[in-house]
Design brief:
This protein has 580 residues and is mostly helical. The chain has 34 helices and no strands.
C-alpha cells in the first residue's frame, strides 16, 4: 500500500469533520514528532499547529496545549520556547478551559527556563496578550503575570509587568478585572513589602469598590494575602475595615468568602484585633439572629475548631463554646451536621475540665439529634473523646444514648452505631462494653438487614483480641449456638457467617471443640443455601481441625457430593479438591 508521510497523515485527520478523529490525531502528536525528527518538528510541525489552533475545536485545542508541555523530548529543552507562538494563540482562545490549559503549559515550561529566557520569550507573549482586543487573552495575561513574575530578575521588566497588572485592574471588561481579583493573592505573594502600601493596596481598594459578585468573592482572600506587606497601623485602620465591610455584604457567597478567609486572616493579625474584632464577625455570621443563610452558618460551623486554634484558651471557653452551643441548636440540619463533623477537635484545645463541664452537654444534644447525618459526626469520633477525657466519663454520658441509637428504626443508623463501636468499643474496656453494648451486640446478629448483621459479626471479631476468647465463649457463643437452631433460615445462616469470620481469631482447639459442632448441626438443614454454606465453612476451617473430626469433615463433604441440590454438590466437590 501507499505509505503516507506522518505530517500529511496528521493534517488529513485534523481536517476531518469528526471530532473524535481530530482528538485521536492530537494524541499521536508525540509519535509524529518522533517519526519526522527534531528539525521537521521545529520547522514544519510547530508552525502548522500554530496556524491550525486559531480555528480548531476547543477540545482539540486543550489537548494540543497539554501535549506541548512535553515537547522538549522531541525538540530539546533549549528549543522548547518554539512552542510559545502556538501556546500564545491558545492562551487567547475564546474558551476558558483552553486558555487555562495553555497558561498551565506556559508556566510549566517557564519554570524550567533561565530568567533571561523567560524575559526574552515569555514576557513579549504576556505583553501581546495584555493588549489584545478580546477579553480572553487579557485574562490570560493577568494569570501569567501573577504566576511567572517570580521567575523574572530584570527590575525594568518587573516594573513593566507591575504596570500592566495594575492597568488590567481597571480594564473595561469585568471578566478581566475579576481575573485580577482572583490572581491578586498569587501576585501579592511574589512581591516585597515595599510594594504593599503604595502599589497593591490601591489596586485592592479599587477592586473592593466593584459591585460585581464575581469580583467581590476574591476580596477577602486578597486581604489575607496583602496583610504581611502592610504596616500594623495600615492593616488596622485601612485593611481591616475593608474586610469588615464585606462581612456585611448582601451577597451570601461573599459572606462565605469572608469566613473561608477568616482563619488565615486571624493568623496574620495581632491577637487583640482577633479577639476584639474577628470574633464579632464570626459571631455575626454564625448566629441565626444575624445570619439568615444556612450555607453561611454552615461554613462558620466548619471553621469553628480552626478558628479556635488561633484564640487563647480563655476566649475558647468564653466565646467558641457558646458559639458551638448556638450552632448545635440551629434550625438547619446542614449547619448542625457541619458542627458535628468538627466539634470533637475542641477537647484538645480547652482541656478536660472544660470539656466535661461545658462541652459534653453540647455533644450529647448532637447525639440525640433526629437527623442521622448530624449525630453520626459525633458518633464516628467518640474514640477521640475517649482519648481526651477517658472511657468512664464517655461511657456514663454517651453510652445509653448510643445504645438507643443501636435500636433505631432506620437501619443505616443501626449500622453506623455498630461501625462506630468497632472504633471505640475496645477503648471502653470489657466491663463497660459488656454493661452497655453486650445485648446490642447479640441482638444485632438477628437484625433483618444483612449489612447490620455483617457489621455485628465484624464487631465481634474485632473485640475478641481485646476482650479474650473466654469472653466470646461466655457471652457470645451461646447466642451463636441458639442462632444455629433458630427456625428462621437467615439466623441459621448467620451462625455460619460468624464461624467464617472468627475462626482465625481463636485457637485451633476452640475451633474444633466449640465452632465445629455449630457447623455440623446444620449438615442436614432443609435449606440448600445453608447446606452449601456448610460446605464452604468446613473448607475454611479445615486446616484448624485435627483427627478424629478431620475425617468427619471429609466424610461430610463426600456425602454432600450426593446431595439432591446441584449447588451443594458443586461446592462439596470444589471443597474436596481444595483440601486434597
Amino acid at each position: 500500500g501507499i505509505i503516507m508521510d506522518p505530517l500529511a497523515f496528521l493534517k488529513k485527520n485534523l481536517s476531518s469533520g469528526e471530532l473524535q478523529t481530530q482528538l485521536l490525531a492530537v494524541k499521536r502528536l508525540s509519535t509524529i514528532a518522533v517519526a519526522i525528527g527534531p528539525e521537521s518538528t521545529k520547522e514544519t510541525l510547530l508552525p502548522f499547529l500554530t496556524e491550525y489552533v486559531s480555528t480548531c475545536h476547543p477540545e482539540v485545542g486543550k489537548d494540543i496545549a497539554t501535549q506541548l508541555s512535553d515537547f522538549s523530548r522531541f525538540i530539546g529543552s533549549n528549543n522548547i520556547v518554539l512552542t510559545f507562538p502556538c501556546l500564545e494563540v491558545l492562551a487567547a482562545f475564546d474558551d476558558a478551559v483552553v486558555c487555562e490549559e495553555a497558561i498551565e503549559t506556559l508556566v510549566l515550561i517557564s519554570e524550567d527556563l533561565q530568567a533571561s529566557e523567560v524575559e526574552t520569550h515569555l514576557v513579549p507573549v504576556i505583553q501581546k496578550l495584555s493588549k489584545k482586543e478580546n477579553f480572553s487573552p487579557r485574562k490570560s495575561a493577568v494569570a501569567l503575570i501573577a504566576r511567572t513574575y517570580c521567575l523574572i530578575e530584570n527590575e525594568e521588566i518587573q516594573n513593566s509587568l507591575r504596570n500592566t497588572f495594575s492597568g488590567l485592574s481597571e480594564d473595561p471588561s469585568p471578566l478581566v478585572r475579576s481575573s485580577v481579583a482572583s490572581q491578586f493573592a498569587e501576585f501579592a505573594s511574589n512581591l516585597d513589602s515595599e510594594f504593599g502600601e503604595n502599589y497593591l493596596l490601591p489596586i485592592l481598594i479599587r477592586l473592593s469598590s466593584e459591585e460585581l459578585e464575581l469580583i467581590q468573592l476574591y476580596i477577602p482572600p486578597a486581604c489575607v494575602a496583602i496583610t504581611p506587606l502592610l504596616s500594623k497601623s495600615v492593616t488596622k485602620n485601612t485593611l481591616f475595615p475593608l474586610f469588615q465591610r464585606y462581612s456585611h455584604s448582601n451577597r451570601w457567597r461573599v459572606r462565605c468568602s469572608i469566613l473561608d478567609s477568616l482563619v488565615d486572616f486571624a493568623s496574620r493579625l495581632d491577637q487583640d484585633i482577633v479577639i476584639e474584632k474577628l470574633t464579632v464577625i464570626y459571631n455575626q455570621l454564625s448566629s441565626q439572629k444575624t445570619e439568615s443563610e444556612p450555607e453561611v452558618r454552615n461554613v462558620a460551623a466548619n471553621i469553628l475548631v480552626d478558628f479556635a486554634k488561633v484564640l487563647p484558651t480563655a476566649t475558647i471557653v468564653d466565646f467558641i463554646i457558646p458559639c458551638a452551643a448556638t450552632l448545635s441548636n440551629d434550625e438547619s440540619p446542614l449547619v448542625r451536621s457541619g458542627l458535628s463533623s468538627v466539634i470533637l477537635g475542641l477537647p484538645y484545645l480547652c482541656g478536660n475540665s472544660v470539656t466535661t463541664e461545658k462541652l459534653l452537654p453540647i455533644l450529647l444534644q448532637i447525639l440525640k439529634d433526629d437527623v442521622p447525618k448530624v449525630h453520626l459526626g459525633v458518633l464516628s469520633y467518640l474514640d477521640v473523646l475517649i482519648d481526651s477525657i477517658g472511657p468512664n466519663i464517655v461511657a456514663d454520658y454517651f453510652a445509653p444514648q448510643v445504645a438507643i441509637l443501636g435500636t433505631d428504626p432506620r437501619w443505616r443508623v443501626r449500622l453506623s452505631v455498630l461501625e462506630s463501636l468497632s472504633n471505640f468499643g475496645k477503648q471502653l474496656g470489657l466491663e463497660l462494653f459488656s454493661k452497655y453494648f453486650q445485648d446490642l451486640c447479640c441482638s444485632s446478629l438477628k437484625d433483618p438487614v444483612y449489612a447490620v448483621r455483617e457489621a455485628s459479626i465484624k464487631l465481634i471479631k474485632g473485640a475478641i483480641p481485646s476482650f479474650s476468647v473466654n469472653w466470646f465463649e461466655e457471652k457470645i457463643l451461646p447466642e451463636i449456638t441458639l442462632l444455629g437452631s433458630h427456625e428462621h433460615y437467615l439466623h441459621r445462616m448467620t451462625s455460619l457467617f460468624v464461624v467464617n469470620e472468627i475462626y482465625n481469631s481463636v485457637p485451633a482447639t476452640f475451633c474444633q471443640e466449640k465452632l465445629l459442632p455449630i457447623v455440623f448441626q446444620l449438615k442436614d438443614d432443609p435449606v440448600p443455601n445453608i447446606r452449601f454454606n456448610v460446605c464452604k465453612t468446613l473448607v475454611l476451617i479445615y486446616h484448624k481441625i485435627a483427627e478424629p473430626q478431620l475425617s468427619e469433615v471429609k466424610n461430610s463433604l463426600t456425602q454432600f457430593t450426593e446431595d439432591s441440590d446441584t449447588d451443594v454438590k458443586y461446592f462439596a466437590n470444589q471443597g474436596l479438591i481444595s483440601i486434597a
